[in-house]
Specification:
elongated, mainly alpha, 159 residues, 0% strand
């Protein structure tokens, strides 16, 4: 069964319907009449389509409760931000190396500074991943930790 389907089914069984959001959407047509209002899903209300895929996948595979899902969402948001910053620093590093080799003579100092920027970004990312793993470990119960370890070992989930 697809993780997204399970999440929607679980929410519908709990009676979490957001009728006001659907009617206040302002869009007419077939989607709203049949309960397929994409704005409802994107807002994070209703069936949970607004949840990013890694979070939805982990919530399903690890059988997380609502509090754990909220905690994990915050954890994943922090690591997402740090990864984006690391990608930006890598692009700056590439530009710095390109500048170092562009001139008539190789500028070793500029290349060294550019590569140091990349190393610093990797260190920050390493520290953030470590914090993420620690927070995730604290949040999970022993059975969920075993499932997470299996997902990591099998390659179904990557860090």
């Amino acid at each position: 069964m697809h993780p997204g389907f399970y999440y929607r089914w679980k929410r519908s069984q709990e009676g979490h319907h957001d009728e006001e959001r659907t009617s206040a959407c302002g869009r007419g047509g077939w989607r709203r009449r049949h309960g397929h209002d994409r704005h409802q899903y994107a807002s994070g209300h209703g069936s949970g389509f607004g949840v990013r895929r890694p979070l939805r996948y982990m919530a399903n595979r690890l059988d997380l409760d609502d509090d754990q899902i909220d905690t994990l969402a915050g954890i994943l948001n922090l690591i997402k931000t740090e990864r984006a910053q690391a990608r930006l620093d890598e692009q700056r590093s590439i530009a710095g190396v390109a500048d170092a080799v562009e001139g008539d003579e190789f500028n070793a100092d500029a290349a060294s500074q550019a590569l140091a920027l990349r190393v610093a970004a990797a260190e920050r990312l390493k520290e953030e991943v470590l914090k993420t793993l620690q927070k995730t470990h604290e949040m999970l119960d022993p059975e969920q930790r075993k499932r997470l370890a299996y997902l990591l070992r099998s390659g179904q989930l990557t860090i």
